[in-house]
């Protein structure tokens, strides 16, 4: 076969909703996977020019550099409140927050509860890696029992630290919530399911049926002290049994979608 017979085929294309900026995330972290899924969905919905993102303090603090769309920076835990204001004055826009577990389930616990309780028509992408990532690997509300962190070197203890908090189970009980699901990013099949869930959450917002949240079990090999490959297995073997994957609340209007 002559060299001229080869045809170059483009099998990869970066979503237009992502910039060309290198991310600051650690090797093996699945934040990048989550970013791409969100960007792909927004491109497929042709909503890039009508999307407003909100990121708080945490590993996602520089998200506005990575998404090629309008973005706002919120104080730690306050992204849902800022998103509420943005959506109320821009009801035709697609508004979403991108939050970690330390941010959403700890300092921002009251924010997320009341936003969901009011049925604010926004979407939350919740990254759960069971630890505080940016600030040094301390225990988060989602840290597993027995899990060692920089603030629990002997492992999380029930009597001293209490139990992990499961946000999907809590928020799904609120009347204002329309779509609450938990997915994982530990392998290709689950990544595909995560993308479908993100699309459904945005569709819920477009239909105006209330608050939606997609929780994504994510890896943090740096703060867990293991390799990237081991971290994905840890999500599957350790996190999924504690945080069962599934649909916790799906509005009837979405069940027909």
Quick overview:
The protein has 11 helices and 7 strands. By secondary structure, it is an alpha/beta fold.
Walk me through the structure.
The protein has 257 residues and is an alpha/beta fold. The protein has one domain: Thiamin diphosphate (ThDP)-binding fold, Pyr/PP domains (Rossmann fold, 3-Layer(aba) Sandwich), CATH 3.40.50. It is 38% helix and 16% strand. It has a seven-stranded mixed beta sheet, sandwiched between helices. Helix 4 packs across helix 5 (109-118). The longest helix has 20 residues, at 188-207. The model has no long low-confidence stretch (mean pLDDT 94).
Q: What is the radius of gyration?
A: 18 Å
Which stretches are low in confidence, meaning pLDDT under 50 for 5 or more residues running?
none
**Number of helices, counting only DSSP H or I runs of 4 residues or more:** 11
Number of domains: 1
State the separation between the terminal residues, measured CA to CA: 49 Å
CATH class: Alpha Beta
CATH architecture: 3-Layer(aba) Sandwich
Say how many strands there are. Answer: 7
- Summarize the biggest pleated sheet: 7 strands, mixed
What are its keywords?
257 residues, globular, Rossmann fold, alpha/beta
Strands, helices and their partners?
Blueprint: H1 31-44, E1 51-55, H2 63-66, E2 70-73, H3 79-89, E3 94-100, H4 101-107, H5 109-118, E4 123-128, H6 158-161, H7 167-171, E5 177-184, H8 188-207, E6 211-217, H9 221-224, H10 228-242, E7 246-250, H11 252-255
Parallel strand pairs: 1-2, 1-3, 3-4, 4-6, 5-6
Antiparallel strand pairs: 5-7
Helix pairs in contact: 1-8, 4-5
